[in-house]
From TrEMBL:
Signal as UniProt keyword: no
UniProt entry tagged with the keyword Zinc-finger: no
InterPro entries: ATPase_NBD (IPR043129), Hsp_70_fam (IPR013126), YegD-like (IPR042054)
Pfam families: HSP70 (PF00012)
PANTHER family in UniProt: HEAT SHOCK PROTEIN 70KDA (PTHR19375)
Keywords: ATP-binding, Nucleotide-binding
A GO term for molecular function: ATP-dependent protein folding chaperone
UniProt-recorded name of the protein: Heat-shock protein
């Protein structure tokens, strides 16, 4: 029997296992410790997960890709089903099959059944809705028990990241932990240090937790709506009057967890009618081609890649020749900020709220520890650091700090 720390993320998942009191991260896919939170349902009913799932879809295999699985927790989507082949599958079962595969790979690495689990969770699954937040955690707890975990407990993801950071400290300090992931942005203010790490109970070291349901997938959505969806008719007009074409198709197409809604047969019929009524029917034809060929995730993957390229290089050209010869868009840092700057501002505002909840001044923070893939976005980092300008900046393992900390916590609780 063994314990584990699970960071089930919107974009990626990691798993740490504890054996003999030692916590180690599992290579979940080849040599990679991260497993993209993606599932591909093949036509024969089998599934692939992670990079293999994305590769099957990108390679043109017929089936159903699902990404950003965690984002359905606490939302109305959790009660819906999605069409897979000729059958409808509950989103709860999609999550369960994915996490079952993660557990299976963890047990293969540990050489023993995984029976005890520390499950990571954001500070808020859903903003301003305590009941939905409770339901999201309850759902994850039930799935974990169904998968054979006898003991299941939870830890806030930024607290887990702080435990990873604490391992490198030689003196005590007050730290702001910023975990900006694919689905949420979470903050904790924690007293850390070598002596504090030895304590069995750490509740008094945590001064405040706060968060907001904004993450990398939201930046993808806003960037897609701003730069890509207009190529498919978003905000274009109907032929009669000044009314825009319905926006619901574009919002679903720009949202990872909602893309598969467009593959229902009724949507095709609606788009055929919309093309007849549109002032720019050629744009609607592009939209129809994406929907009829089930290439919505192709668009989302390309927008996500463009966002990352802009963060790393400053600008990128995004070709869509697969949709129409010569079709493309250009995105630079200014465009990224124009379409997503409001999101970065809302993330930064949560730092002030966290400081107020902790009862400390910005100048009291010794260090800010940054983790999560979205901390690579320059304007997101700037929004966070502007709130604590005197703090030392430490960049953690972008995708691994939370998982490492959860494994450390699993060793403490169950080792």
């Amino acid at each position: 029997m063994a314990a584990a720390g699970l960071d089930f993320g919107t974009s990626n998942t990691t798993l740490g296992v504890v054996s003999g009191g030692r916590a180690d991260m599992v290579r979940l896919e080849g040599d990679e410790e991260t497993l993209p939170s993606a599932t591909f349902y093949h036509q024969d009913g089998s599934i692939s997960v992670g990079r293999a799932a994305i590769a099957a879809y990108v390679g043109g295999e017929h089936g159903r890709l699902m990404r950003a699985l965690k984002s359905v927790l606490g939302s109305a989507l959790m009660e819906e089903t999605t069409l897979v082949g000729r059958s409808r599958v509950k989103f709860r079962d999609v999550l369960k099959r994915y996490l079952a595969e993660v557990k299976k790979r963890g047990e293969a690495a540990a050489g023993a059944p995984l029976t005890h689990l520390v499950h990571g969770r954001p500070v808020h699954f859903v903003d301003g809705n305590a009941e939905a937040d409770r339901l999201a955690e309850t759902t994850l707890h039930a799935i974990a028990r169904d998968l054979g975990f006898r003991e299941v407990s939870f830890q806030y993801e930024p607290i887990a990241a702080s435990l990873d950071y604490e391992q490198q400290l030689s003196r005590e300090e007050l730290a702001l932990i910023a975990d900006i992931g694919g689905g949420t942005s979470d903050f904790s203010i924690v007293r850390l240090g070598p002596e504090r790490a030895k304590k069995a109970e750490r509740a008094s070291d945590v001064l405040a937790n706060d968060g907001v349901r904004i993450g990398g997938t939201d930046f993808d959505r806003h960037l897609s709506l701003g730069r890509v969806m207009p190529l498919l008719g978003f905000r274009s007009k109907l032929a009669r009057g000044e009314i825009d074409v319905p926006s619901v198709y574009y919002h679903d197409l720009a949202t990872w967890s909602a893309i598969n809604r467009l593959y229902e047969s009724r949507v095709h019929r609606e788009l055929v009618d919309l093309e007849k009524r549109a002032a720019a029917p050629r744009l609607i034809q592009r939209l129809m081609r994406v929907v009829d060929d089930e290439r919505g995730h192709t668009l989302a993957i390309e927008v996500e890649a463009a966002k990352i390229a802009v963060a790393e290089q400053g600008a990128v050209a995004v070709p869509f020749d697969w949709l129409e010869r010569g079709l493309s868009t250009h995105i630079d840092h200014a465009e990224l900020v124009r379409h997503t700057g409001e999101l970065a501002g809302r993330i930064g505002a949560r730092v002030d709220a966290c400081l107020a909840a902790a009862g400390v001044a910005a100048s009291d923070i010794d260090a800010v520890f940054l983790t999560g893939g979205s901390t690579r976005l320059e304007h997101v980092r700037a929004a966070i650091l502007a709130a604590v300008p005197e703090a030392r900046v430490v960049t953690g393992n972008v995708f691994g700090s939370v998982g490492t900390g959860l494994a450390v916590e699993a060793a403490r609780r169950y080792g």
